[in-house]
Amino acid sequence: MAEPANPADTNRPALALHVPEPKYRPGDKADFSHIEVGSPGAQPRPDESIHPSQMADLAYSLVRVLGDDHQAHGPWNPRLDPETLRTMLGHMAMVRAFDERMFRGQRQGKTSFYMKCTGEEATSIASSMALASDDMVFPSYRQQGILIARGYPLLDMINQIYSNRADKLKGRQLPIMYSSREHSFFSISGNLATQTPQAVGWAMASAIKGDSRIAATWVGEGSTAEGDFHAACTFAAVYNAPVILNVVNNQWAISSFSGFAGGERTTFAARGLGYGIAALRVDGNDALACYAAAEWAANRARGNHGPTLIEYFTYRAEGHSTSDDPSGYRSAQEREEWPLGDPVMRLKNHLIAIGEWDEDRQSAMDAECAELVKATTKEAEKNGILGHGLHHPFHTMFEDVFEELPWHLEEQADQAIRERITKFGSERPFG
Amino acid sequence: MSPGSQNDTATVGEVASERRINMIEAINEALDIMLTRDPDVIIMGEDVGYFGGVFRATAGLQAKHGKNRVFDTPISECGIIGAAVGMGAYGLRPVPEIQFADYIYPGLDQLISEAARLRYRSAGDYIAPLTVRSPFGGGIFGGQTHSQSPEALFTHVSGLKTVIPSTPYDAKGLLIAAIEDNDPVIFFEPKRIYNGPFTGFYDKPVEPWKKHPDSVVPEGYYRIPLGKARHVREGEALTVLAYGTMVHVTEAVCKAKGVDADILDLRTLVPLDIQAIEASVEKTGRCLIVHEATRTSGFGAELSALVTERCFYHLEAPVERVTGFDTPYPHSLEWAYFPGPVRIRRRCRGGSRRMACEGR
Fold first, then answer.
1. What is the four-CA torsion angle of A259, A261, A262, A267, rounded to 10 degrees?
2. Cα separation, A134 vs A180, whole angstroms
3. How many Å separate Cα A91 from the centre of its chain?
4. C-alpha angle A86/A158/A131, rounded to 5°?
5. What does the pLDDT read at residue B245?
6. What is the interface size between A and B, counted as CB pairs within 8 Å?
């Protein structure tokens, strides 16, 4: 390495590396008063055909609808009927109950792994409800709410988490890496951000075919640092692809705060502007704002006005996964101090404020969700839990690598089955 | 002697006419035929649209089939492959081009983690029926980043098929089969032999394809099944396993030196035609593997292991490899690097029993 110049020998100042540091570490008192959240209803709602260069304010501020008075405000109010709002609240309650139960299931050893979406329920449920059911979604691993909103059976979700003999993915995938073509829900990959150029490609294909379906993808703010995200934005802009690029900014990428994804000096929405992509920054804990932004972006895509990047500003209320302990890197107070509150509570309070809901019905619904998840868990356990022997037949490990088994996989499958017979005897060759 | 692959019994489709074309023309024709036959076939890549590709492989296709079917892309291999995976999920059959195999690496995550795994991880819910075309190989003074042969990176990936043609006839038939295949296929085109079958005798003029029997290419649709090797030459002295440019180099050396080699052009590396390899080695008792790629952990290592495991009691000498050296591909010392006639000759001189101890 070359010797650094001695500052005494030059009048040039010594350079200094900036390594971002979150405001609060374990033991610190959290105070989020520096975060500008703005007033609900204050942001204008432009026509969906607006040129991205005219959207700077919307990329740097925060689109909000629900106020502290629990009422809906301003032009972004999607004016949903009470039945739709109750359905939305029901999905959010369900995913929360589901997360609680599955987290506990992992702790009980029924599966190897789980990831909650607590605090981020609106960013998947409300925004996917603004799409058509056959619009294709390319989620990351924290949008289980989409499956619930699209009516994917809870039993199938749990079977996948348990990797049991009824698992539709045949026990091949890590828990929560769901896939359902029937629900236009793309196969989840462990490799971050890979789904973003794929979503753009799907949208391009829809445009090539003169179809009317659009694509939407979700990615965490941490993963926007991946090269794939840049490729996705470039391709989306170049081909005017009918796609919605959702960035869920939950402030944390495992232990790294959003500053390590470049969030200290700009917003994630603002990145869209540089590509010529329409950009919205939204209160991610405000279900009505999430719905309205997705509806706006969907209209824009369907009208051939091009892609939209939506940043959902939210907070990852729980650990990253069952393998993570957030008390090792952030203040325990953050969750309660978070200025945008809890998305489920805010929607509930809104429904109560407009006279369409009450605490008793909420309690009954929560109990019903918990009961249904519990019963479905028991049902799924009949098909086996991880490591207890009830799984797909042995040969399935070798299937679907290719459409047809080539000779080398046939040989390896025979070998694996011979090994099983050696270990367990011929009465249990496939068990 | 070269029987010519049009006599291959595995080939289906039209009977050959006497028309002769080069490999670029054969590839262009395969793409044109598939664009015409299947409305879901899409071609994209850097400079492939209006301009027709830096090697002219896609010339005229955009004008004929439209910008919706054949189009230019941003310079982003990750984006090209990633978008192609998404298009495959929609139901299209994309044929992306990576301008040089040396530049496929930014797209590797999309190929390895996504395209190759998609059918498996979704239990068949989604597939990635894409064919990634890319010129590869050296012998053109391409230096470090226009000469590489990275096939071993792909043969190591479960879920990918790797195909390398060595003649115009094979290039067309294999490319059509690759595009029709429902699995992701890496289709490496040896750019050194786009215009003529290079023999490795670089100081002699290169003959055009027109003088080679395998440049007789039928005009219409035909395909050559993936996973089937081609018998380039029948012989008794030793088996040579080669693919791409090295098929012609090996053939020329054996002809010049009177080596009675049994030469197999593998054509598809995964899935491999193991039956053809076993039959040949059991006949000759010797095996020489020739590839341009660097030696360590190259595809030759897999071939050597397979032959040793499966033909051990038929072998009369250790399996040998003639490969590129374990260095980046050099510019000025190209012919010292390239596994040309001298290096091959030293390994297979007269089918010698001393093959194993020669030239160490």
1. -90
2. 12
3. 15
4. 40
5. 98
6. 146
Query: From CA A398, how far away is CA A409, in angstroms rounded?
Result: 6
- B291 assigned to active site: no
Dihedral of CA atoms B309, B313, B314, B319 in degrees, nearest 10, equals 50
User: How far apart are the C-alpha atoms of B357 and A41, rounded to whole Å?
Assistant: 84
pLDDT over threshold 50, residue B170: yes
How crowded is the C-beta side of A31, counted as CA atoms within 13 Å? Answer: 3
| pTM, to two decimals | 0.95
Give the 3-state secondary structure of A296-308.
HHHHHHHCCCCCE
Residue B358 has pLDDT above 60, yes or no: no
User: Radius of gyration (Cα) for chain B, nearest Å?
Assistant: 20
Number of H helices, E strands in chain A: 13, 7
Q: How far is A13 from chain B (nearest CA, A)?
A: 37
Tell me how far apart the terminal alpha carbons of chain B are, to the nearest angstrom: 30
**Higher local confidence (pLDDT), A129 or A416:** A129
CB atoms within 10 A of CB B37: 12
By C-alpha distance, which of A333, A253, A313 is closest to A25?
A: A333
Give me the pLDDT at residue B355, please: 46
Q: What is the DSSP string of B104-173?
A: -GGGHHIIIIIITTHHHHTTTSS----EEEEEE--SSS--TTSS---HHHHHTSTT-EEE---SHHHHHH
User: First and final CA of chain A: distance in angstroms?
Assistant: 59
What ipTM was predicted for this assembly?
0.96
Our CA-based measurement puts residue B296 at a distance from the nearest CA of chain A, in whole angstroms, of 22
User: Does the distance separating the beta carbons of A198 and B82 come in below 8 Å?
Assistant: yes
Q: What is the pLDDT of residue B351?
A: 43
Q: Which of B84, B127, B227 sits opposite A201 (nearest CB)?
A: B84
Residue found by looking up tokens 């496929």 in the block: B104
